[in-house]
Design goal:
18% of the residues are buried. Strand 2 and strand 3 form a beta hairpin. The model has no long low-confidence stretch (mean pLDDT 93). This protein is α+β, with helices and mostly antiparallel strands and 96 residues long. The protein has a 4-stranded antiparallel beta sheet with strand order 1-2-3-4, covered by helices on one side. The longest helix has 14 residues. It is 28% helix and 29% strand. The radius of gyration is 13 Å and the shape is globular. The chain contains 2 helices and 4 strands.
Length: 96
């Protein structure tokens, strides 16, 4: 298993992992079928991670993304000093 920063070419694989994760847990924000599936939204999130102040680390097993850690700073003036951290791990890979 490899952990690394997300790259733009990971967009489709990342979206697939998120959609699968939505079906495996009730602890993520989106319920099954609720997450936007527009790949441009995902690419925008990745772009902000690559060129901005946010961070997305992905866990890869062979060629599949199986988990992630996202750290996003507050965008608005009153919360620029805050960070929002999300961790998601596919069911099969939890506890490892």
């Amino acid at each position: 298993m490899e952990i690394r920063k997300i790259q733009m070419e990971d967009a489709n694989n990342y979206l697939d992992m998120l959609l699968n994760l939505d079906n495996e847990t009730k602890f993520m924000m989106f319920e099954p079928g609720e997450r936007p599936t527009d790949i441009n939204i995902i690419k925008n999130i990745i772009e902000k991670s690559i060129n901005g102040d946010n961070l997305i680390l992905i866990a890869i097993d062979e060629e599949n993304i199986v988990g992630f850690l996202s750290a996003q700073k507050g965008e608005h003036k009153r919360i620029k000093h805050t960070g929002y951290i999300v961790v998601g791990i596919r069911e099969k890979y939890r506890g490892k």
